[in-house]
Design goal:
alpha/beta, 14 helices, 9-stranded parallel β-sheet, TIM Barrel, single chain, 44% helix, binds flavin mononucleotide
């Protein structure tokens, strides 16, 4: 059973991948998406999105990272996949799930699900462009405007030679609104022979059990749930081995966030200082009341020194109170 860390544009950069994979339980990561239009991209672009290229495509803890491409044209996608592999990528992931208007308007992400032939052509072009020992995976939603053609898109990925398929159990039109339709993943899993990875709305070990039962998938992908509780993967693995791992305390989660704040300061423009911290806090506050208060205290703060002082106060003040049951 493998746990994948979901790709999250604007949130899960290489530093977050490093931090989250230090807490055991995650078996596979994916980069933020590299946008492909019609130009071949230089090596430095792949390195920027995936500094792990310098480390055999692994996080410092040794967890493999796939390089994610997003685009609608088979040939440029194939050419850039080839270049990514030349730059050191050891696995390519193709994005057919992004719901963002700007991305869909420029012919990328979930809008491609309207036409399974386009999905087939992109997967097939990339599969043929890279050596056969480089896995090519795809990530889809259950559809664009509705959930009617997921089997066609899933089959298109398999027929085109994808090595595995991650399925976010909602259509583009469903957005991020619960529920996740895990039973649809179950149908896909039954019909396909490649590994299928279930994704969407797994926030706890209990959710994992339900998703497992409804989808029949051994492999899962965790996104927001891992940000909301950074040792969720560890808890699920503990459950599977008949042991127990408690959710991280707020103090521990805050230490992680503080560490991320410090190491990420130099890599993002000063005017965006704290943005990614606030984004992460939005998820942490779903589990930790203290994160809600901390978010309120810093939400308008952009000054790095003031943010650092707020972290210091927060860490000094927090008790090791357990996460809410
Ligand atoms: C802020 C944000 C950014 C995302 N970026 C990507 C992306 O770059 N590529 C992708 O395939 N999915 C992306 N997703 C979708 C997630 O990978 C995942 O499918 C979705 O969040 C559902 O899983 P979860 O309920 O475990 O979070 C993003 C989701 C969010 C919330």
């Amino acid at each position: 059973m493998r746990i994948h860390l979901a790709p999250m544009e604007g949130v899960i950069d290489y530093l977050v991948r490093d931090i989250l994979t230090q807490t055991k339980g995650i078996d596979q990561c994916v980069t933020e998406f590299v946008r492909v239009v019609d130009q071949p991209l230089p090596r430095r672009v792949f390195r920027r999105f995936c500094p792990e290229l310098e480390n055999q495509c692994r996080t410092p803890s040794g967890v493999p990272v796939k390089l994610q491409l997003l685009g609608g044209q088979p040939e440029p996608m194939a050419e850039n996949a080839r270049r990514a592999v030349r730059a050191g990528a050891q696995a390519i992931d193709l994005n057919f799930g992004c719901p963002a208007k700007t991305v869909n308007k420029s012919d990328g992400g979930a809008c491609l699900l309207r036409d399974p032939n386009r999905v087939f052509n992109i997967v097939s072009a990339v599969r043929n462009a890279v050596p056969s020992d480089i896995p090519v995976s795809a990530k889809i939603r259950l559809g664009f405007a509705d959930r009617s053609n997921y089997m066609d898109n899933a089959r298109a990925c398999e027929d085109a030679g994808a090595d595995e398929l991650a399925v976010h159990a909602r259509s583009k039109a469903d957005g991020y609104k619960p529920p996740a339709y895990w039973e649809c993943i179950g149908e896909i899993k039954q019909k396909l022979t490649i590994p299928v990875i279930a994704n969407g709305e797994i926030w706890s070990v209990e959710d994992y059990k339900k998703c497992r039962a409804q989808s029949g998938c051994d492999d899962i992908m965790l996104g927001r749930g891992l940000l909301a509780c950074p040792n969720l993967a560890q808890q699920i693995k503990a459950y599977l081995t008949g042991t127990h791992s408690s959710p991280m305390t707020w103090h521990q989660a805050c230490q992680i966030l503080h560490h991320y704040f410090r190491i990420s300061l130099p890599i993002y423009p000063q005017k965006h200082a704290g943005n990614r911290i606030k984004q992460w806090l939005m998820y942490l506050r779903l589990n930790y009341p203290e994160a809600r208060d901390f978010f309120e205290a810093i939400k308008r703060e952009r000054n790095p020194q003031a943010l650092e002082a707020a972290f210091q106060r927060q860490l000094a003040d927090t008790t090791d109170a357990r996460i809410r049951a």
